Amino acid sequence: MTTTTIAATTVRLRALVAEIREAVDRGLPPGPTAQLVADLLTPHLGAPDLLLPEHHEGDPDRYRQHVLHAEPDGGFSLVALVWLPGQITPIHDHVAWGVTGVHQGAEYERRYRLVPDGPSARLVATEDVITRQGEASAFAPPGDIHRVHNGGTGTAVSVHVYGADITRLGTSVRRLYRLPADA
Ligand SMILES: [Fe+2]
C-alpha cells in the first residue's frame, strides 16, 4: 500500500478536513456531495491561517500542486494549486467529483462538451467561468471536461477537494483530450 506523509498542516485545515469527512460520510451521490463540500470550503477561502507559507510557493515552469490531505480510506483528498500568471492545464476531465475553491486571485475556466465529428469527435466550448477569491464551484463526472488557467496578473492559489485519494492514483485527471477544440 502506498502511504503519503503530509508534512505540515494548520488547525483550520484540520477543521475543514473534519467537516468534509462528515459530509462525505453521509453517502450522498457525487453531485450533492460535491455541492455540500463546496459550501463547507467557501467560508475558509482567503483566511490567512488556512494554508502554510510553503503552500503558496509556485513553479516557474508549470502550475504547482501541494498535497494538503489524503483521507486514509481513500474517500477524498485536498490539494492547493499555485498558478503563476498565464499557467494553464491541458483539456481534461476527472476521476471523481471535485470542488475548486479560490483562495487568492482567480481561476479562469473554459468548459467543453464532446461532440461526434465524423469518425472521431471534437470539443465544443460551452461556457467560460471565472471563479474569484472566496468562491467555490463543484463538479461531478460525466460532463466535467475543462481547461483552467490563471488569466490574472498575480499568483493565484486554489484549494481543490477530490472524491478520491489522488496521491494513490497519482492524478485527479481521468483523461487528457488532444482532440480538435474551440480555442
Ligand atoms: Fe480540472
Largest sheet: 5 strands, antiparallel
Which CATH architecture is right?
A: Sandwich
E-strand count: 10
Any idea of the CATH topology? Jelly Rolls
Order of helices and strands: HHEEEEEEEEEHE
Query: Which ions and ligands are bound to the chains?
Result: fe (ii) ion
Strand order of the largest sheet: 1-2-9-4-7
pLDDT < 50 runs, ≥5 residues: 1-5
Shape: globular
Protein name: Cysteine dioxygenase family protein
Pfam families: CDO_I (PF05995)
Family: Belongs to the cysteine dioxygenase family.
Organism: Streptomyces pyxinae
Outline of this structure?
By secondary structure, this protein is α+β, with helices and mostly antiparallel strands.
Structure write-up:
- By secondary structure, this protein is α+β, with helices and mostly antiparallel strands.
- It has one domain (2-176): Jelly Rolls, CATH 2.60.120.
- Helices cover 16% and strands 37% of the residues.
- The protein has helices spanning 11-24, 30-41, 166-169; strands at residues 64-70, 77-83, 92-94, 98-104, 106-117, 120-132, 136-139, 146-149, 156-162, 173-176.
- It has a 5-stranded antiparallel sheet with strand order 1-2-9-4-7, covered by helices on one side. Strands 6-5-8 form a 3-stranded antiparallel sheet, with no helix packed on it.
- Strand 1 (64-70) and strand 2 form a beta hairpin.
- Helix 1 runs antiparallel to helix 2 (30-41).
- The chain is globular and about 55 Å long.
- The termini are far apart.
- It binds fe (ii) ion.
- Fe (ii) ion (FE2) binds next to strand 3 and strand 8.
